[in-house]
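Why does residue order matter? Because the sequence determines the fold. Keep that principle in mind as you read this record.
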Amino acid sequence: MSAEPLTVVVSGAAGQIGYSLLPLLANGRVFGDHPVHLRLLDVGFPGVAENLAGIKMELEDGAYPTLASVQICIAELDKAFSNADVAILTGGFPRKKGMERKDLIAKNAAIFGEQGEAIEKYASSNIKVLVIANPANTNCLILQTAAPKVPKENFTALTFLDHNRARGQIALKLGVSAGDVRKVCIWGNHSSTQVPDATFGEVTKDGATAKIVDSVDCAWLDGDFVKTVATRGAAVIAARQKSSAMSAANAIGDHIRTWLVTGSRADDFVSLAVPSDGSYGITPGLVYSFPCTCPGDGTYKIVTGLEVTDAKMAAMKASEAELLQEKADADAILAAK
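Structure:
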């Protein structure tokens, strides 16, 4: 095994997503032949340490080919982030019944501010970070603000799950594999204001490639398709009384693998929530989901020059407005500390 080892922090490791994700990180599916040193980070609530001890035993019992070591870190940010190469942050304060999004930001601002400070102090200066805990885009922005030594482009938030949901819905509609669906994307916030977009999409069926807009009813694309993708997480919770941990873990693996290892396909793009560079008129610095291409070396490029309709642009600006409000709320909370 010739690839360099990687130290990977997973916060919220005792949670549902962590339990589904950790085997993917250990078996080579995400990082290829890189040996992986896993740091399992979580809070010191009752039962968490015991849970993580059991998860550590299961990882050891899995005999995973690329798992080099497992270390448990109970509220030990210094230990968890020391010289870390990759951080996958699933842990945050969950939204409770009756909570406004502003309340959720207030709870998570302290958590991600503290983690950002730990990244600044202890992690590799080139650490790559993926934020999953909601509100993911704004948590990511808080995190990067607290870790100025790390390049801003090294911080991303997860909209690959929404991206996969969009591809899955198109595939179901057309009776094809999701792998036959290309160039769909998610614009904006990982929230109900996100803008799933198949305008540029292509599908291969029976050996022929066609535009998605020529293959399905546009009223469905602008209506039920958008609504289904944007509210899919809530629908999963309603159906199984638990969050979409399995599909989230799969999307995390897709995001990390595409960004850091394999790159995106030459005939496709993926959806990543990244700091805006001003493309499509979105406020620079705001963590916003764009269609991106990845060479597989830890960099990405926002796809530019796509012709966005006025209706889509209006929806994109509405999602931007929500993120600007979240940023203002977070700034006020952090300023009052």
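The first strand starts at residue 6 and ends at 11.
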